[in-house]
Design a protein that fits this description.
Layout (H helix, E strand, L loop, with lengths): L2 E4 L2 E4 L3 H14 L3 E6 L1 H7 L3 H9 L2 E4 L2 H9 L10 H15 L2 E6 L4 H12 L4 E6 L8 H11 L3 E5 L4 H13 L3 E4 L3 H6 L1
Parallel strand pairs: 3-4, 3-8, 5-6, 5-7, 7-8
Antiparallel strand pairs: 1-2
Helix pairs in contact: 1-5, 2-3
This protein binds uridine-5'-diphosphate.
EC number: 2.4.1.187
Protein name: N-acetylglucosaminyldiphosphoundecaprenol N-acetyl-beta-D-mannosaminyltransferase
GO molecular function: N-acetylglucosaminyldiphosphoundecaprenol N-acetyl-beta-D-mannosaminyltransferase activity
């Protein structure tokens, strides 16, 4: 995968369609991988927070989520074809998931939001298979149970809405234990879908 280095972050030079195709490959291969849609705020903080930069550098796909990142790539003489935002990639992947019968787990946001977002996705993409949902306000001692719930759901894609950058750190920390082929942070996207 061709990338461009933006302040230490390896940003994929992919269109939305190409990013979705790369994720489809991850689902087929089956080993746990992390997708990060990188926005300028995240990249800025990563300059000072080594844990964030480590998560970005370890991620399997980093997309240019914001015109600032697209601009920086052009300045670096190594342009990315377009912006690939979290919500756009989420919707594109939900569409693919419905088509291929991939199992989708929605984790995060206030109680009830993930369920409402799942209903909305099922309306937009008939046939979507829901592996499960869980809200994002669990206590530290409840965390192992949440990880186990996701693991047992046999999800193909896990969307994590705990807010950036916490969701990316959470995904990186639990990636192997979750055992899900694609784990991606989606920020406030579940709230947007839930309406
Ligand atoms: N969120 C959560 N648990 C928390 C904090 C936040 O599930 O402990 C959820 C919140 O309800 C929202 C989502 O994370 O649905 C994204 O939050 P925010 O808009 O602050 O993050 P951003 O979109 O900037 O990443």
């Amino acid at each position: 995968m061709q990338t461009v280095d933006i302040l230490g972050a390896p940003v994929a030079r992919l269109t939305l369609d190409e990013a979705a195709a790369a994720v489809a490959g991850f689902v087929r291969e089956g080993r746990p991988r992390q997708v990060i849609t990188l926005n300028p705020e995240f990249l800025y903080r990563a300059q000072f927070e080594p844990e964030l930069m480590a998560a970005v550098r370890r991620a399997d796909l980093v997309t240019a989520d914001g015109v600032g990142i697209v601009w920086a790539a052009r300045r670096a003489g190594n342009p990315v074809p377009e912006r690939v935002t979290g919500i756009d990639l989420l919707l594109r992947l939900a569409e693919e998931a419905a088509r291929h019968r991939w199992r989708v787990f929605l984790l995060g946001s206030a109680p009830g939001v993930a369920e409402a977002a799942a209903r909305e996705l099922a309306v937009r993409y008939p046939g979507l298979v829901l592996a499960g949902t869980h809200h994002g306000y669990f206590k530290p001692e409840e965390e192992p149970g949440v990880v186990e719930k996701v693991r047992q759901s046999r999800a193909d894609i896990l969307f994590v809405a705990l807010g950036a950058p916490r969701q990316e750190l959470w995904a990186a920390r639990h990636l192997e234990a979750l055992g899900v082929p694609v784990v991606m942070g989606v920020g406030g996207s579940l709230d947007v879908l839930a309406g």
